[in-house]
């Protein structure tokens, strides 16, 4: 019902919709990407991030607390890849790693089915972010403006939690100072069971 209401209310803010570039971001639609691509025919850009960096953030933000979502992903993992969810008494980080593993595996398998999708790595974009983001915009046929350049520069500063500012040069290997060896072992123990847990991500 909420999606139907949102769809009915959604209207472009300009008189000429053809002149607009509508950007839609979702971090949890990996299992539905084929449907999204078929239904709306968008230009798909997939931003992938190192699992340890992602899970360090999820741990700090206390993500993965919705039992209905977790149960749905557990059923999907069991029927699709024969991967069982951690037991209820497992550490929260193990539950988060499983949640990530389902989304990450679905995402990589969708990428393999769609070689026309644009794939970018978060860690690579953090190295000389203005240049890397300008290059990505050009690949997509988007205009890179002075305002965009200034926004990237202004965002390159310390921030925590849901604040959308970070020191970009610190991001690629930040997990090494955020996760303990024991936490890394918990994550690896869960992700090792998934088919798309690649050697490059270890």
Order of H and E elements: HHEHHHEHHHHH
Counted by DSSP, the helix tally is: 10
Name the beta content range. under 5%
Low confidence ranges: none
Q: Which labels suit this protein?
A:
single chain, 202 residues, two-stranded parallel ribbon, 51% helix, 4% strand, globular
What is the secondary structure topology, with strand pairs?
Layout: H1 2-9, H2 33-40, E1 45-48, H3 51-61, H4 67-81, H5 92-113, E2 118-121, H6 122-125, H7 129-139, H8 146-155, H9 175-178, H10 181-191
Parallel strand pairs: 1-2
Helix pairs in contact: 3-5, 4-5, 5-10
Characterization of the model:
The chain has 202 residues and is mostly helical. 51% of the residues lie in helices and 4% in strands. The chain has one domain (14-126, 171-201). The protein has ten helices and two strands; from the N terminus they run ααβαααβααααα. The chain has a two-stranded parallel sheet. Helix 4 (67-81) packs across helix 5. The longest helix is centred in the middle third of the chain and has 22 residues, at 92-113. The chain starts with a helix and ends in an 11-residue tail after the last helix. The model has no long low-confidence stretch (mean pLDDT 89).
In short:
Helix content is 51%, strand content 4%.
